[in-house]
Amino acid sequence: MNKELTFNDLPMVVAQLRDEVVGMKQMIISLQSQNKPHKANTHIPMSVEEASAYLKMPMATLYMKLGNGSIPATKPGKRYCLYQDELDKWLETNRKNPVPLTAEPATEQEQPKQISPQTEPVKYSHEDYAKCVEAQEKEAQEEKEKRTRAVLDYVHRTMSRFLYEEDLSKVIEAVKEWSNDTNYTPIAINRFKENVENIPLRHFVWNIAERLGKRDYTMAMRIAFIKTLFPKPFEGLDYSTLKNLKAPCSNDVIPIDEPDNGRHDFHDVTEKTSE
Fold it and tell me: What is the pTM of this model?
């Protein structure tokens, strides 16, 4: 049976209620602490293999990202050390800014275009072309003059033994004209101060034609020139006999002189120089 409270009982009742409220508060706090989940420690060290499995990322891709520093890790020695909580933060950051987790190469459209340096195109003017042609023609003319000079000197040295001075001058002039015109017809020389057969004269025309221009002076041109220049030693001889300009001769007063590698020098001069 409840006792009827009087005014004098109020202080005692208030104190009792206060104690009960405090007790209930403590009980609630205790229950809350028991039901609250315990926060686990995620600052756990992980190896590269463990991190690869945790991130579900291929090892090659993980090593690539570790190399360029895009994934947080430490390297106290030769091996990388990763922490789970740091990887969680990295994953959260990349969810906001997603990046591919595989090392697949970028497609052609994704790859940055490499801009090659632009070089100015080389332009040549008409004057440049004209100068180049002029230089080539000058060089060719100088080479021709050297060859012609060497041939004329050879003619003078070789034929002075067989010809008089007046006729030798005519032969030199004929060879000079022939060097400019392969179809030139020379004036005939019919006298010799020393007899010479046709084979040495064949050697003579072969030697000079090889220097003047091997391809320009055909066999027929060579035979026609020497036979017209010295008709007497070639009387009665046709083309089939004369076409062997390098025919051997027992009395070879004018030997065959093979040019060395297209050079215009004659060996009778180089041999004397070497001596």
Answer: 0.53
